[in-house]
Amino acid sequence: MWQTGTIRVAKIGGIAVDIHFTFALVVLWGAFSGWQRGGGLEGAVLGIVAILVLFGCVLLHELGHGLQARTLGLVVRRVILLPIGGLALLETPPSRPWHELVIALAGPLVNLGLMAVAVIAIVVTNPAFVFTTDILTRATVAPGIEGVLVYLLSINLSLFLFNMLPAFPMDGGRVLRAGLALLTPYVVATRIASWIGRGLAALMALMGVIGFFAYGLGQYLLLIVVGLVVYYGAYNEEVYVRRQWALARVEVGQIYQKRIETVSPWDNLTAALITKLFKYERILPVIVDERIVGLLGYDEAHKFVNKAQAVTVAHVMRTDFPTLGLRDTLWVALQAMTTDHLTLLPVVEGNRFRGVVSLDDIDQAWRLVSSR
C-alpha cells in the first residue's frame, strides 16, 4: 500500500529517496504539538525541527541498510520515508545468513555513530554538561544548539534500542534470525525468531494493559499498539518465509494451465468481450502464430467501451509484461506478478506460447504444500 503516493526528493549513493505524501501530516502534527505546549510560534518551529531531525536519523538508518546491501552485490530499489518510519526496498533478499546479519546491523550502527557525534558535539560546546539517565525522556527540542544536540542524542538512543528488540519487523529480529540461521535451517530460524518476537509483543501488550488500568496514562496505550504491531509483524514474517520456501520448490511447469482462452490482436473490442473480462476478472493472452504479443485486461479495455469508432484488441492490449519459463519457480512467478501488478502471466517455451499461471494457481499450490 505504501508503494504509491510518493515523491522522489533525492538520490544518495545511487539509492532513490522517496517521501510519502502523508509525511506532510507528520510535519503539521509536530508544529501543532509545539504550539499546543505553549511555545507559540517558536514552539511550532521547534516541533518541526524535532520531526525533521527524527526523520533525518531514520533516513540515515535506512541508507545504512541500503548501502551495506549494495556492498554485498544486492540491488536496492529505493528508500521510502513513511509516517511510521522508513523502509529500504531490496530487489532481492539476502541469500546468506551473514549477509542478512551485517545488513540488519548496519542501520543501528548508524544510530550509534550519530549518538557519538552528538556526545562529542555536546562536550565541545559545553564541557560542563552533565549526562543523566533521563536522556531518553527528552523527546522535545529545547531552544539553542545544545537543545538540538541533546535531542539528537536522545532520539538516536531510542531508535537504537527500539530497533534492536529481538522481534520482527525490527532489525533485532533479523539479527536474531540470521544468527540462528548460521546454526539451523533458515525456515526453522525464522520460526524460532518469530515465536520469540510474538512472546515479546504479548508481554509488551500485557504491560500496556496493566499500566493503563493502573495509572491511566497515554503512553501505556502506545505500548499496547506497539505490541500489536510487533506481534503482527513477527507472524507475517514467518508466513512470508514459509511461503517463499514452499513456492521456491514448485516449478511453473507443474501447475500451469495449458488450455486457456485467447484472443487475436485484430479481434474487435466488443461489449460482450469487456463484460466477460469484468465478470471473471480475467486477463486474456493475445496470440499470433503461437506467440504471445500482448495481454488484454479489463482495466485497459473498459475505457473504450463507449467509443463510437471500432477498436481492436491491438489498440488497448498491454505489450510490456514479463513471461515465465517452465522451469521457473512459483516464487519467481509471484514476485513478477507483484512487481508488474498482474494476476496472470504467460508461460513460454522458446518463442512458443504454452499456457498461463495465475495468482489463484499459486494460492492453490501454496495451500496444497501447506497442508502437506
Beta-strand level of the residues, as a percent range?
A: 5-15%
Overall outline: elongated
Described by strand count, sense and barrel closure, the largest sheet is:
4 strands, mixed
* Secondary structure category: alpha+beta
Strand segment tally: 8
How many domains, as an integer?
Answer: 3
- Which value, in Å, is the CA radius of gyration? 26 Å
Oligomer designation: single chain
H-E string: EEHEEHHHHHHHEEHHHEEH
- As laid out across the biggest beta sheet, the strand order is 1-2-3-4
Q: Poorly predicted ranges (pLDDT <50, ≥5 residues)?
A: none
- The level of helicity is 55-70%
Mean of the pLDDT scores? 80
State the separation between the terminal residues, measured CA to CA: 32 Å
| Count of alpha and pi helical runs | 12
Can you put this structure into words, describing what you see?
The structure is a single chain. This protein has 372 residues and is α+β, with helices and mostly antiparallel strands. It folds into three domains: 1-164, no CATH class; 167-247; 252-371, CBS-domain, CATH 3.10.580. The chain is built from twelve helices and eight strands. The chain has helices at residues 23-71, 97-125, 145-163, 171-181, 186-215, 218-247, 252-255, 271-280, 298-301, 313-316, 330-340, 359-371; strands at residues 6-12, 15-20, 76-82, 85-90, 283-288, 291-297, 344-349, 352-358. Strands 1-2-3-4 form a four-stranded mixed beta sheet. A two-stranded antiparallel sheet has the order 5-6. The chain has a two-stranded antiparallel ribbon with strand order 7-8. Strand 5 and strand 6 (291-297) form a beta hairpin. The longest helix is centred in the first third of the chain and has 49 residues, at 23-71. The mean pLDDT is 80.
